[in-house]
Amino acid sequence: MKVALITGITGQDGAYLSEYLIKKGYEVHGIKRRSSLFNTDRIDHLYQDPHVQDRSLILHYGDLTDSMNLTRIIEEVQPDEIYNLAAMSHVKVSFDTPEYTANADGLGVLRILEAVRLLRLVEKTRIYQASTSELYGLVQEVPQRETTPFYPRSPYAAAKLYAYWITVNYREAYGMHASNGILFNHESPLRGETFVTRKVTRAVARIALGMYTKMFMGNLSSRRDWGHAKDYVRAMYAILQQEKPSDYVIATGVMTTIRDFIRKAFGEIGIKVDFKGKCTEEVAIVTAMDKIRFGETVGEEYIQGMEKRIGEEVVGVDPQYFRPTEVEMLIGDASKAREQLGWEPKYGIDALIKDMMESDLLLMKKDAYIKKGGYRALNYFE
Ligand code: NAP
Ligand code: G4F
Predict the structure, then answer these.
(1) CB-ligand 1 contact for 188 (6 Å cutoff)
(2) CA 261, 266, 268, 272 torsion: positive or negative?
(3) Number of the ligand 1 atom closest to the C-alpha atom of 192
(4) Sign of the alpha-carbon dihedral angle for 330, 331, 333, 338
(5) 9-55: per-residue pLDDT in tens?
(6) Of 262, 343, 268, 329, which Cα lies nearest the Cα of 298?
(7) Is 71 a catalytic residue?
(8) Which residue's CA is the nearest one to ligand 2's atom 9?
(9) What does DSSP say about strands 313-317 and 283-289: parallel, antiparallel, or unpaired?
(10) Which of 71, 113, 212, 366 has its CA at 20 to 30 Å from residue 309's CA atom?
(11) Over the stretch 288-316, which tens digit does the pLDDT of each residue have?
(12) Are 73 and 5 contacting, i.e. CB atoms less than 8 angstroms apart?
């Protein structure tokens, strides 16, 4: 049985990856932070009582800023594979917490690499570092590929730049099987609520159900290459199964503006919105409604309420969501991953939005949510 250690197991990718590896027969160990509230919602369906024998999921308290703790866990677990997914992953928040971000996101992986080296696990343990398309920042080439120069635009990206290069350095210096996955944005029903896609799908669901009137957004013109997290954790696994370590861009190759993502999210439930105005005055207004589609996706009992919103504003802009330096566009070329890993995304942008909208509608309809047994995504890989 192979043993994997996942940092950031309570996050979006940690949850999907754990399930994926457990299905493959792995014993999965995860590092979670102590929190005053339960923070394991995303992996509760995988949790096993500590008294169960031969558990496939085992959690350890830890933190990427604590090297002794990481070293002890790695020594105890003796992992075949480490997936370093833990990070302060919000770009806007990194401007407020730059030092902490550098410590966790930059030095965190150094602590892991060094622990593996000092524990003499170099031959045994393979390491995946969660690198990011944010490294390309002010893009120097379109689309971005493995050879595109980096130009970070946030404390988050600057920290991840260090993490990227120290991973490459340990590979070259000590012959470690250490690889970077340069993943472009990937989303899902489990995406954190303050990232733009989830903020939108939650808000659209609430507007449709008459629970909310208008969402306020930041830069509507920025463009992202969005994939589904389920597809992206398959790539992480594939990267560590390669005979030789290397760095890979993982992306769909399709770019969409925030504005179009919002249009599509409303479109998914039969609502047409039109944008008008410029800059901070820009708004989106409901201009039409396909009642049949709305009835099918949201529920007939909500049609009347939504009909009253035709002609009204449902989206506005609030500069508080602007970033001091913005990444205006990201689009990846994943040819290397396609050729060497045989990796292809199964989800396009429309299927991703459908999945997220369905899930958030269900989540917002509390009763239906509870009756159906909680997260619709209980078995992510089925
Ligand atoms: P996420 O949902 O924000 O999860 C981050 C995880 O890291 C959570 O489990 C969090 O714990 C944990 N964490 C944060 N600080 C920590 C610390 N100091 N010590 C230990 N654990 C800590 O992020 P994600 O979307 O799953 O992304 C996974 C990784 O891929 C991150 O490194 C991210 O930067 C990177 N990445 C993400 C994307 C994307 O589009 N999703 C793209 C490229 C790269 P809590 O649950 O306690 O907060
Ligand atoms: O969803 P976002 O916050 O994600 P961002 O900044 O692209 O970062 C995510 O993807 C990276 C991969 O490229 C990861 F490394 C990182 O950990 C994270 O997962 O913002 C996307 C875009 C930005 O241009 C932002 O300015 O959406 C724009 N945006 C517009 N209005 C907004 C909003 N972003 C957020 N979070 N909230 C808004 O209201």
Answers:
(1) no
(2) negative
(3) 2
(4) positive
(5) 999 999 999 999 999 999 999 999 999 998 999 999 998 888 999 99
(6) 268
(7) no
(8) 185
(9) antiparallel
(10) 366
(11) 999 999 999 999 999 999 999 999 999 99
(12) yes
Angle at 91 between CA 140 and CA 169, to 5 degrees: 60
Give per-residue pLDDT as tens, 241-292. 999 999 999 999 999 999 999 999 999 999 999 999 999 999 999 999 999 9
Hey, which of 40, 85, 112, 129 would you mutate to test ligand 1's pocket, going by the most ligand atoms within 8 Å of its Cβ? 85
pLDDT (0 to 100) of residue 378: 42
Instruction: Kindly identify the ligand whose nearest atom is closest to the C-alpha of 86.
Output: 1
Question: Is-catalytic flag, 325?
Answer: no
Closest CA to 251 of 337, 326, 190: 337
Residue 193 has pLDDT above 70, yes or no: yes
C-alpha 74 to ligand 1 mean position (Å) = 19
pLDDT of the residue at 366:
72
What percent of the chain lies above the pLDDT cut of 70?
96
Catalytic: 156? yes
Span 116-146, pLDDT tens digits: 999 999 999 999 999 999 999 999 999 999 9
CB distance 31 to 73 below 8 Å: yes
- Amino acid found at 119: L
Q: Is 8 within 8 Å of 85 (Cβ atoms)?
A: yes
- Closest atom of ligand 1 to 9 CA is 9
* Residue 206 to residue 212: CA distance in whole angstroms: 5
Cα(230)–Cα(239) distance, rounded to whole angstroms?
A: 15
Enter the pTM of the model.
0.97
Catalytic residue among 7, 101, 125, 132: 132
The catalytic residue among 81, 134, 268, 358 is 134
Backbone angles phi, psi at 253, to 5 degrees: 85, 10
Q: How far is the CA of 316 from the centre of ligand 2 (A)?
A: 17
